Amino acid sequence: MSSLKDIKKRMKSIKDIHKVTRAMKMVSVAKLRKSEKDLEEVEIRYKKLECIFFEKFLSLHKTDMPELLLKNKEDRIIYILINSDKGLCGAFNKNVFKAFTQLYRDKENLVCAIGKKAITFSEREKFPIYEKHLFPDESGFYKFSQSFVFGILEKFKAGEIDTLKVIFNKNVSPVSQKVQVEQLIPLEVDKEKLKDFKKSKHMCEPSDFQFTEKLIQELIIAKLFYILKQSVIAEHTARMNAMDAASDNASELLDELTISYNKARQAAITKEILEIAGTAEALKG
Fold it and tell me: b or e along 97-106 (b: 16 or more beta carbons within 10 Å of the residue's beta carbon)?
């Protein structure tokens, strides 16, 4: 059995860990609430852009579709991996890597790593990297999305890439996340959603085609912006749950050590009593 001193030392260490994990959980809860509030505004903007796009799409002629809507062979794909800069968030980062390795087939396909964990993974596994970025601050999500999409569109128009896909985590419940794979370029049109819309009757200058082409660019930017928000919310949720589980484990271990400590102390007291009793008997004799 461990000595009382060793058990007390372990108990102190676990109490300190418990304080840290509880504090980290509370920080994640606060960040999560703020991000969820911001997401509502981002979602409203994205949905409005999407509605305008569906109406304009229905008014386009099939022979006059913008290039950003045309399907291609997907010979040259860029995969955006969205991860966190930090760990301690369960399987949040690992699940994205797993989904990506299942999709990645051609060595000519490139990786855009967003987040320190994604950069480390891509470099360690020696995937060809198109770009790498630390995870941007939430206040700079839109600016980052705009700059990134404009750069990608230049590559797309030049024929250097065919497809842009993004792999990220999304909350499916307060306690779990699911990896999503969405295509940004060419933009995919949801035919089910399209059924709820009618052709736009508005006239656009200089033309419907040019307006729609510009609208698609803005929609792609808004979609990446929306995805980044979803990912950061999933990260906060994953870290909150991981720290909650760690706090529970620390509490359980502390309870077990408390029982061990009490048993060891009781054994020490009993031993001392027996020694005193033995000494007293010896003196009588």
Answer: bebbeeeeee
Q: For position 179, what pLDDT does the model report?
A: 95
| Angle, CA 58 vertex, CA 53 and CA 63 arms, to 5° | 110
At the top level of CATH, which class does the domain 4-20+243-284 belong to?
Answer: mainly alpha
Give yes or no for a contact between 24 and 243, defined as CB atoms under 8 angstroms apart: yes
Q: For domain 29-239, give the CATH number.
A: 3.40.1380.10
* 193-218 CB burial, b ≥16 within 10 A, e <16: eeeebeebeeeeeeebeebbeebbbe
Q: Is the pLDDT of residue 202 over 70?
A: no
Task: Identify the residue whose tokens are 């304080």.
Answer: 19
Q: Domain ranges in the chain?
A: 4-20+243-284, 29-239
pLDDT in tens, 28-55: 999 999 998 889 889 998 888 888 888 7
| 226-245 tens-digit pLDDT | 999 999 999 999 999 999 99
Helix/strand/coil (H/E/C) assignment for every residue in 170-193: EEEECCEEEEEEEEEECCCCCHHH
Amino acid, res. 166: V
